[in-house]
TrEMBL record:
Signal peptide: none
SUPFAM superfamilies the record matches: GroES-like, NAD(P)-binding Rossmann-fold domains
Species this chain originates from: Hoeflea alexandrii
InterPro entries in alphabetical order: ADH-like_C, ADH-like_N, ER, GroES-like_sf, NAD(P)-bd_dom_sf, Zn-ADH-like_protein
UniProt cross-references to PANTHER family, sorted A to Z: QUINONE OXIDOREDUCTASE-LIKE PROTEIN 2, SHORT-CHAIN DEHYDROGENASE/REDUCTASE
Gene3D superfamilies: Medium-chain alcohol dehydrogenases, catalytic domain, NAD(P)-binding Rossmann-like Domain
Cross-referenced Pfam families: ADH_N (PF08240), ADH_zinc_N (PF00107)
Chain ranges of the Enoyl reductase (ER) domain: 10-319
Name of this protein: Zinc-binding dehydrogenase
Length: 321
């Protein structure tokens, strides 16, 4: 099979498109022939050695893939060859065939496209966990979404609306702001002049701020929080890890809440599975619909990752073997 291999940590140009042996399932494992592979911002950090986890090199990056079950281990009973599934991995998804532990393999309804299934894993899973478990977002609250046109941002907009919130999205261009509105945001603002705009549009402050950006945008959000608000730290797409004047937390009486989806999946697998069921149900009901930005050949994984790291995409990028 063909796969993308990270031979050693370094620039994206180090990635290699190689022939590897086909995987064979162990007792509790499943082999899936990939039809769609999700590309995520952390994938680009991982291959450069900039992420929290550092697998031993060489390795195949990628956390999610959807496709057809090709083979199963002796102890696997919830799926069979020929079934449509989506899988979650620590790494190994950027390949024509994917090996996954059976407890990370989820059957797909016939109505769900493979690309949508990939989107609902990491990006939508992160946003869902952030707003549901970490923020406890309530109907009628005001949700501020920074990085609104990214895959997690658009997911946060859609999930926030499904949970009954008023959503203010922030994005860097008019095209991205339009995508936020089309996804369901009540209002889309630029970063320029954001502090004054939020004073006008949310004079009492925002109840929940979803921040995958960091940098100067975090500073604005930190000053725009309402009393009893929750400021969610998702990531640092700007490349700058901000510093928080903690007197703001004291004076405004809000909470700073970290969101690390990987730890959540590992430590609370039953809650994670319940979250997946809810997202799948919302998709079936038409309440949510991932925005697929583009499809790229598997061989172009480096190009796709660069575009995401440069914050050029709108929504989800998919690799196609």
């Amino acid at each position: 099979m063909k796969a993308i291999v990270c031979p050693e940590y370094g620039p994206l140009s180090n990635l290699e498109f190689r022939e590897l042996p086909d995987p064979e399932p162990g007792t509790d494992e499943v082999v899936v022939r990939a039809e769609a592979i999700g590309v995520n911002y952390p994938d680009g950090l991982l291959v450069q050695g900039l992420y929290q986890m550092k697998p031993e090199t060489p390795f195949v990056p990628g956390m999610e893939a959807a496709g057809i079950v090709e083979a199963i281990g002796d102890n696997v009973s919830h799926v069979k060859p020929g079934d449509r599934v989506v899988v979650m991995l620590n790494n190994g998804a950027y390949a024509e065939k994917v090996l996954a532990s059976s407890n990370r393999v989820f059957p797909l309804p016939e109505t769900m496209p493979f690309a949508d299934a990939c989107a609902l894993m990491c990006a939508w899973g992160t946003s869902h966990h952030a707003l549901k478990q970490r923020a406890n977002l309530q109907p009628g609250e005001t949700l501020l979404v920074l990085g609104g046109a990214g895959s997690t941002g658009l997911a946060a907009i859609s999930i926030g609306k499904a949970m009954g919130a008023r959503v203010i999205a922030v994005a860097s261009t008019s095209e991205k702001q339009k995508a936020c509105i089309e996804t369901g945001a009540d209002l889309a603002l630029p970063y320029e002049g954001l502090r004054d705009a939020l004073k006008q549009e949310a004079p009492g402050g925002v109840d929940v701020a979803f921040d995958p950006v960091g940098g100067a945008a975090f500073d604005v959000a930190a000053r725009a929080m309402a009393r009893n608000g929750r400021l969610l730290v998702i990531g640092f797409a700007s490349g700058e890890i901000p510093k928080l004047p903690v007197n703001l937390v004291l004076l405004k009486e809000y909470s700073l809440v970290g969101v690390f989806w990987g730890a959540f999946v590992a430590k609370e697998p039953e809650v994670y599975a319940a979250n997946n069921r809810e997202l799948f149900a919302w998709h079936a009901e038409g309440r949510i619909k991932p925005h697929i930005d583009e499809n790229q050949p598997l061989s172009e994984a480096g190009t796709a990752l660069k575009r995401i790291l440069d914050r050029g995409g709108i929504g989800k990028t998919i690799l196609v073997p």
